Amino acid sequence: MLNVVVLMGRLVADPQLRQTPQGTSVASFRIAVDRNFARQGEQRQADFIDIVAWRQQAEFVSKYFQKGSPIVVEGSLQTRQYQDKNGNNRTAVEVVANQINFVPRTNGQGSASGAAGYAPAAPAAPATGGYSRPAVQDAAPSYSAGSSEDFAVIDDNEDLPF
Predict the structure, then answer these.
(1) How far apart are CA 53 and CA 26, in angstroms?
(2) Cα–Cα distance for residue pair 58/63, rounded to 1 Å
(3) Rounded to an integer, what distance in angstroms lies between the CA atom of residue 34 and that of residue 70?
(4) pLDDT tens digits, residue range 97-154?
(5) In this structure, what is the dihedral angle of CA atoms 21, 71, 126, 67, given to the nearest 10 degrees?
(6) Phi–psi pair at 93, nearest 5 degrees
(7) CA distance 30 to 113
(8) For strand 89-101 and strand 46-54, is the pairing parallel, antiparallel, or unpaired?
(9) pTM
(10) How far, in Å, CA of 127 to CA of 122, rounded?
């Protein structure tokens, strides 16, 4: 079965970092994700999605993200049943994060700068990107130093090499 969710949005509030009784870090937060379609003359709608991150991902998101920060989350969708304080049965739907990333910065023409437009994944040191919290400068490799001679042409008329 396949259960993969990839979302890009902005944090609605600061992440809430807690510890389980066993000392495991867990962070919960909500992101606003714009819908793809907006009728002409209407404002674009957003969905508000609950996210749960565990261990290093929880510590990473609580350290480097805050309310309003853009974020990319990859994870799986989960549901759970519980009773509220009035005894009513409720269902919670949330994304359990496997990987949390910074949103790639654009170069002004709408294309992302850097290697294939991807930002560093947690727990790598984040690049500075206009966030109000201080961030460590990322020592990202320079991909512009390579040349076309560094790649081999694969003849696809025969069997694949793997």
Answers:
(1) 6
(2) 9
(3) 12
(4) 999 999 977 665 554 443 333 344 444 444 444 334 334 444 444 445 555 565 556 5
(5) -70
(6) -115, 125
(7) 27
(8) parallel
(9) 0.63
(10) 11
